[in-house]
Amino acid sequence: MKEKRKYKRVPMHMQLEIESLYTSGEHEGMKLNEKILVTNISKTGMAFISSKELPLNHFFNAKITIDEEKMFYSVLRIVRKRTLKEGYEIGCEFVGLANILSEYIDEYVVEVEEREKK
The pTM is what? Predict the structure, then answer.
């Protein structure tokens, strides 16, 4: 099967906490307080496993930690979900990510690819 994504996704194991979800017109978001495990990341988005089903087209704020030196805050939008035995796989896209921050992800992708070659 041919890959349709623009940018390669690489494995990532990071804990992420989502306190609330919101839509663009909402003043107050849906409270969640969900701890999740990020499974992969790319320049345009990331995927994670959640025990709760999350609504499509909702946004959340996230702190993304690549390593000890590279960390940034971003807004993500939920664009897909898939039911799993252990919960839900949620796919998100970065919203308005600055170029300098997307370079952190590019560097991480290269590091992972180099480790996989060894």
Answer: 0.82
CA dist 67 and 97 (Å) reads 18
Burial class (CB in 10 A: 0-12, 13-18, 19+), 88: middle
DSSP symbols for 44-96: SEEEEEESS---TT-EEEEEEESSSS-EEEEEEEEEEEEEETTEEEEEEEEES
Structural domain boundaries enclosing 107: 10-117
**For the segment 56-109, what is each residue's pLDDT rounded down to a tens digit?**
999 998 888 888 888 888 999 999 999 999 899 999 999 988 787 888 888 888
Domain total in the chain = 1
